[in-house]
Design brief:
By secondary structure, this protein is α+β, with helices and mostly antiparallel strands. A hairpin with a 7-residue loop joins strand 20 and strand 21. The chain starts with 9 loop residues before the first strand and ends in a 16-residue tail after the last strand. It contains 13 helices and 23 strands. The chain is globular, with a radius of gyration of 27 Å.
C-alpha cells in the first residue's frame, strides 16, 4: 500500500486496481486557543491507498470514483464504460467476428462496416458502445490479437520501464512527516540524498482563472434560497495550496503526491519551481502565450510545474520552498496581530474527545445531564442502513465495507449489554429512516458540526503561494492594479 498519491490517479472502473481508505486526522498538537497556524493547513493526511489485485510494473493506477460519478457526467464526458461493460463489448465484437466468418463478404468491407457501426450507431448513451474508442480505426485489428476488450485496455494502460525512465518522474523522492517549521503542521522530507538540479517532484496543476471562486461569505440564514450575504469569511483553505501572482486573477492548484506538504522558508529554501518538461509532464507550453480566456474555455488540466533542487539535499532534510515576499509579510503580520477567538478554550477536537476517558456513545437520556461538547455531533454509518445482510457479516468485513459509505446525523435511544459489550439502537435524525437495533459501537462516530472545524475559523491565515516574476507569463497578467 501507499500513503497516497494526491489526486493524480484517474478512474476507469472496469480495470481499477487500487482503493482509497479513510485519511488520518490531526493538527500536530496545535490548538485554536494558542496557535496562529491553526486553520491554515488541512487536518487530513495519510489517506492509505491499497492494491486490489496484482499490478504489473508500468500499469497505470486507477481508483474507483463510483458509478454515480460517471452517470452524473454523461453529458460532458460521454458514455464511459462501467463494471461489466468491457465484457459485454467483447461479446459484441466476438458476435461480429462470427458473422464476418459466416458471410461471403470481403473482410476489408466487413471491417469498414464495423467501423461505421461502432462510430455512427444510434445508441449514444450506451456504455457498451462507449467501450470502443471511436477514433481508433485500428481497434478491430487489436481486438483480433487480444480477443478481449479488458486485456486490450490493460495493455494500453501499461507503459514499459524504458518509456517511464524517458518520460516519467520519480514520485518517491519525498515523504511526509511532522514539519520542523513552527506552526506549519506537516512537511515533506527527502527520502534519500538528492543532488542539485534533480527534479524532486512533478506538480500537475488545475487552473482556476477567477480566484474569487474561492471566496466565502456569511449569510443571514441557512436556507439555500433567499439568503442574503451579510459579511465575508476567509477564502477556502484550498487557497493556501495554490500558486498565484499579484497581477493576475489566476490560481494554479497542485494535485501531485506529497508536494502539498512542502512548506515555506526563505532562508532555508532548497527547491524552486519551474515549468515542467512537456516530455515528462502534462504540460502544453503554448498556453504560456495564450490569454486567460483560453484556459477558462478548457477545464482539462494542461499545466504543470517541476520542483527542482537548488542545492544538494540530505536524506531526511525537510523540503522547503520560498513562497515569496508577500507571503512572508502576510504571515508575519498575521502572527503579530493574531488573537484567539472567543470560546476557543472550550473547543474539543473529535480526536481528543475519542481519546479521553469519557463515554463517547451516549443515549438520549444520558445527554440530558452529560451533553457532547457543543461543536461535536454523533453520526451513524450509512452501511448499516444500506446493507440488509450486515448482521451476517463479521466485524472485519463491516469495517472494510464501511470505508465506502458516508455518515449521517443520528442519536442513540438505548444501549444494552450483550456478551461483554454494549449494543445500541441507532435512530436517524431524518425521520424517513427507521431505527436499527443491535448496532456495534463502531457503527457510530463523533464528528464536528458543520463550519466548526479549524479551517472555518475567521482568524485563519490565507494566502496563495506566489509564482516568481521570471516564471509567470506576461499574457496572464489581467490584474496589473494588483
Amino acid at each position: 500500500c501507499s500513503s497516497g498519491f494526491g489526486s493524480t490517479a484517474n478512474s476507469f472502473i472496469p480495470i481499477y486496481n487500487v482503493e482509497e481508505g479513510l485519511p488520518k486526522r490531526g493538527i500536530e498538537g496545535l490548538h485554536r486557543s494558542k496557535d496562529p497556524g491553526v486553520g491554515a493547513f488541512t487536518q487530513y493526511y495519510d489517506r492509505e491507498i491499497t492494491s486490489t489485485r496484482y499490478i504489473e510494473a508500468g500499469e497505470e493506477l486507477y481508483v474507483n470514483y463510483g458509478d454515480h460519478w460517471f452517470k452524473h457526467r454523461t453529458e460532458s464526458l460521454g458514455a464511459i464504460p462501467l463494471g461489466g461493460d468491457l465484457e459485454r463489448a467483447t461479446q459484441l465484437f466476438l458476435a461480429f467476428r462470427s458473422l464476418r466468418k459466416s458471410v461471403q463478404v470481403d473482410a476489408e468491407k466487413m471491417d469498414e462496416f464495423w467501423d461505421i457501426f461502432v462510430r455512427n450507431n444510434l445508441f449514444k448513451d450506451s456504455r457498451v458502445f462507449g467501450s470502443f474508442r471511436h477514433d481508433n480505426h485500428q481497434e478491430i485489428k487489436q481486438l483480433e490479437d487480444y480477443k478481449s476488450m479488458t486485456k486490450l485496455r490493460l495493455a494500453q494502460a501499461t507503459k514499459t520501464k524504458e518509456w517511464l525512465y524517458e518520460h516519467g518522474t520519480c514520485g518517491d523522492h519525498i515523504y511526509a512527516g511532522s514539519s520542523t517549521i513552527e506552526q506549519a503542521g506537516r512537511g515533506a522530507f527527502a527520502s534519500w540524498d538528492l543532488e542539485e538540479g534533480l527534479i524532486v517532484a512533478q506538480l500537475p496543476l488545475i487552473h482556476v482563472t477567477n480566484r474569487t471562486l474561492l471566496n466565502m461569505y456569511k449569510f443571514d440564514k441557512h436556507e439555500e434560497s433567499g439568503a442574503t450575504i451579510v459579511g465575508t469569511r476567509p477564502p477556502q483553505l484550498l487557497l493556501n495550496y495554490c500558486f498565484g501572482h499579484a497581477e493576475s486573477t489566476l490560481l494554479l492548484c497542485n494535485y501531485g503526491p506529497n508536494v502539498n506538504y512542502v512548506n515555506h522558508n526563505q532562508t532555508r529554501a532548497n527547491v524552486k519551481i519551474q515549468w515542467a518538461d512537456p516530455e515528462r509532464g502534462n504540460f502544453m507550453p503554448h498556453l504560456l502565450n495564450e490569454p486567460l480566456q483560453t484556459l477558462e474555455a478548457d477545464s482539462f488540466a494542461k499545466l504543470a510545474f517541476e520542483l527542482v533542487a537548488t542545492r544538494p539535499i540530505a536524506k531526511d532534510e525537510e523540503i522547503l520552498l520560498d513562497y515569496g515576499d508577500s507571503w512572508e509579510k502576510a504571515w508575519q503580520d498575521h502572527v503579530a496581530s493574531w488573537k484567539p477567538l472567543k470560546g476557543s478554550d472550550s473547543y474539543v477536537t473529535p480526536q481528543d474527545f475519542l481519546e479521553s476517558e469519557e463515554e463517547r456513545l451516549r443515549t438520549d437520556d444520558e445527554l440530558l445531564t452529560n451533553p457532547y461538547p457543543k461543536n461535536l455531533r454523533l453520526q451513524c454509518s450509512d452501511f448499516f442502513w444500506e446493507e440488509d445482510d450486515w448482521v451476517e457479516m463479521d466485524a472485519e468485513k463491516h469495517e472494510r465495507k464501511m470505508e465506502n459509505y458516508d455518515y449521517f446525523d443520528c442519536h442513540i435511544s438505548e444501549k444494552y449489554p450483550d456478551e461483554g459489550v454494549f449494543l445500541y439502537t441507532g435512530v436517524p435524525d431524518d425521520e424517513e429512516y427507521d431505527a436499527i437495533e443491535g448496532l456495534p459501537d463502531y457503527a457510530f462516530t463523533i464528528q464536528e458540526k458543520p463550519y466548526t472545524s479549524d479551517m472555518f475559523l475567521e482568524n485563519a491565515f490565507r494566502h496563495d503561494i506566489r509564482i516568481p516574476d521570471d516564471v509567470f507569463p506576461e499574457a496572464w497578467k489581467n490584474n496589473k492594479a494588483g
